[in-house]
Every structure is written in C-alpha cells, then in structure tokens.
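Hey L., structure's done. Input below.
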Amino acid sequence: MDFKRVLQRIWKPLSVIVAVFAFCTAGFVLTEGVSWFTGVYWGLTTLSTVGYGDVVPTNTPARIFAMTLMLTTVGVIGYLVSTITMLAMQAREEELLGTGGTKMTGHTVLLGWTQTAKSTLTELILSGEKVALMTRKQEAVVEIRTYITHLISHSSKDPELRDRVTPLTNIYIGYGDYTEKSALAHLNLEGAAKAVIASDDDAHNVMTSLILKELAPHLRIVVALIREHFRETLQAAGVTYVISPSEMGGRVLAEAALQPEVAISLDQMTSGGKGAAINEYIVPSGSPLAGKTFGEAAEVLRKNSGAILVGMAQRNPGNSHVRYTVSMAPSPDVRLEAESYLLALTPSARSEESLEKYLGVKAGRERIHP
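Output:
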C-alpha cells in the first residue's frame, strides 16, 4: 500500500484528533494546575474511557470540563476513527484500480483486456518491457493482477527468463474508459514510447487511436482489428501498424493443416522468452556493419553471436504509412544503410544477448543503448 497516498487522505481527521487531545490536555493543566505530563496522562485516560482512578478532578471547574469531554469527545473520536478507516480503504481501493496513475517512462501502453491483449501482455513482460495497462472492465482488474503475478513468479524461476522478465514494479494496471482523455491521462502518455490498442470493439479502437494521436503524436500506435474495413481509416489517422489477429491466426491454422512444422516454427519464433526468436536491430550511424553487403553482415553476425541474418528493412520515404520496406532473404550483394534494420534469428537467449552486445543495441525499433 502507498502510505503516502493514504496519509494525504486522512491527515485532516488525524489533525482533528490531535487538536482534541491538545485541548483536553491544556484544559486539565489550566483547571487543576497539574504538570503537562500529568495533563497528557489525564487526557489519554479520559479520551480513551479507561479511567484508572489514580488521578481525578478535585474542583468544580475541572469536573465540569471532564464531564463535557466525556459527553462530546468519545463520539467525535469514534466518528473520526471510522472516517479515517473509510478513507484508508477508499485509497486502497483506488490504488488497486489504478486511478492514481503512473509516472513510468519508456513504457508500452496496452488498452483493452481480450485474449489478444492477454497474449500481448505476456510477450511484453517476457521481453522485459514496462507496461501500463488499462481495462474498461472493473471486474477484470483482479484477474489481470493474478495473471501477471503468476506469470512473473513462474518465469522468475526459469534461469533463462528471470534476468529479463519485467518486475512487478514496472507494471501499472488501471481501470477506466480509455476512450476518454481524463482516463488516458493516468497512463503518462508523454513518457510512453508505444501503444497497443486491443479492445473487443473496433469503434472504440478507432476512437482511441484518434485520441492518442491528438494527445501524444510521438507514440508508435499498433491496433488489433476485428473487422478489416477499418484498416484504411486507421492508416489515414497515422496509426503505425494495423493487424487483424483473426486473419493472422487463420494463416497459421492453414499452415498447421498444410505444413504443421512450419506453423510450429512460426509459433516458437514469435513467442517471447527462451528458445529461437526473430528480432530486429537498428544499424546506427557509425556502425561497422553500415556499408557492408547483406552476405558480409550475415557472416559477421553468425561468427560473433551465432545469429542467422534472415532479412532487412530499409527506409521507405515515399510511403507515410509504411516507414520501412521489409525484404526477407535479400540478395547477398545488397548493401546495408545506416538507420536500416536487420532481422536476425537467434537460436537462444544467450545468442540474443551476444548479438545485442556485439551490435551495441537492443532488439526493437529505435531502442539504442545509451
């Protein structure tokens, strides 16, 4: 629990309790002429209704003052204590629902809680990404927290995953209507790097993407579509990538029927965590690979990391929707340009680490090491 957040809520009733106690102590000191220590002791026994009987009022003003305290402050203290409890529980509930927002930076915003969003969240966590997730279903918050906790706990026991899995502190879960700007404000869009929209309503997907482009034009936005006819609308709005999970799933199913081993290999290569994986790496300016041919680069990478170069992506300035043109298994004579991307197949997590160390960059779009 965020005690600072709770304290911000309950400091007023706490101040009233302190003021009542100070008034009680001062009253006994003035009416009885006792020491401040005795006044504090007397005040505590009176307000707590303990009444040891070892110190009692000895004059009429002190007795009237004590009776007044007994009749009024017990109810006041009881009310204040119940108020503090209610405010603390309210703060705790808001914390669980994520209504306090996040200050993370460099994170991925994930909107929606569907099977597609769940798979996306899994891959992001296993890739070590910071995630700020928001769902419109309040009852799903507990389910999401339970799933994330189990995933991280299980992955942390795997020696190949524990050093790269995202810690729980780098995951924010919020409840709110992400088609409204006020809810999106909790996700620190200015500090985010990417956004994935994967709700079960295409109209919400389109509306949310338009709001994101208005609030945070720097974001790389990916949208999962249910109906294909929204694709052109989203691309015209400046969405970076539009994908139809059902269409992609259908292709994999067809491959599973025709070439099951191909489908299995696709599943393995696109799953996060251990095992073989295809990742993209930028060729920064000044890189020794810039200017080399695809064949030369493939030989260098295989020798230094065990990675297999399978493709490349070159800048495509003529298309505002597709910034890079991807070529799989291009001619060995094609030369690599600075700021282009290499698509490499790494057989293991160790091979991926070796490749990142050799290239000096991490996998992913524009994620250069400092």
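The mean pLDDT is 82. The first strand starts at residue 108 and ends at 111.

-- N.
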